Amino acid sequence: MKTRKIVITGGPGTGKTSVIQALEESGYFCFHEVSRAIIQKAQKEGIDQLFLKEPLLFSEMLLEGRINQHKEAENVEANLVFLDRGVPDVVAYMNYFGNEYPPVFNRVCKEYLYDEIFLLPPWKEIYTSDNERYESYEQAVEIHDHLAQSYSSHGYRPVEVPCGPVDDRVSFILDRLV
């Protein structure tokens, strides 16, 4: 059985975590976002914003975490595996911030492939910030555009998930995968 790897992505505050949680509660195997754990670990070590202080190190850690998730997904015995963000997200964020990065970033985007990409659009009504999400809503819109461009430039056609109740968004995603 070939496991289909499905990415749920979008800018900050678009409802990705809620969708992933609902999919998981419905019995689907889901990998959670790796950045929060990296950010929280750095904060415990006294680095408030690792991405701003050392963007390349932070992005290398994200890349490693997302590659590990991709590899782990190969061993999951399920038809569908959902991932909260994929490898091309790292490139999108580096481009958004105008940071330089080595060619390996784009190379691994072509090596670790996904079967489908679902992009959640900015949604002002649900947007909030917290200790790990420091972007404004306007920045979230710009990040969305960089995500769409990153996935498109790596050969994907992201499917935009309409805004609405979590159950409707999950149904939209699952209906597209049948």
From TrEMBL:
One Pfam assignment: AAA_28
- Origin species, per record, is Salinimicrobium gaetbulicola
State the taxonomy lineage: Bacteria, Pseudomonadati, Bacteroidota, Flavobacteriia, Flavobacteriales
**InterPro entries in the record, alphabetically?**
NadR/Ttd14_AAA_dom, P-loop_NTPase
Task: Extract the SUPFAM superfamilies matched here.
Answer: P-loop containing nucleoside triphosphate hydrolases (SSF52540)
The protein's name in its UniProt record: AAA family ATPase
Q: Which domain of life is it from?
A: Bacteria
| Domain NadR/Ttd14 AAA: from-to ranges | 5-169
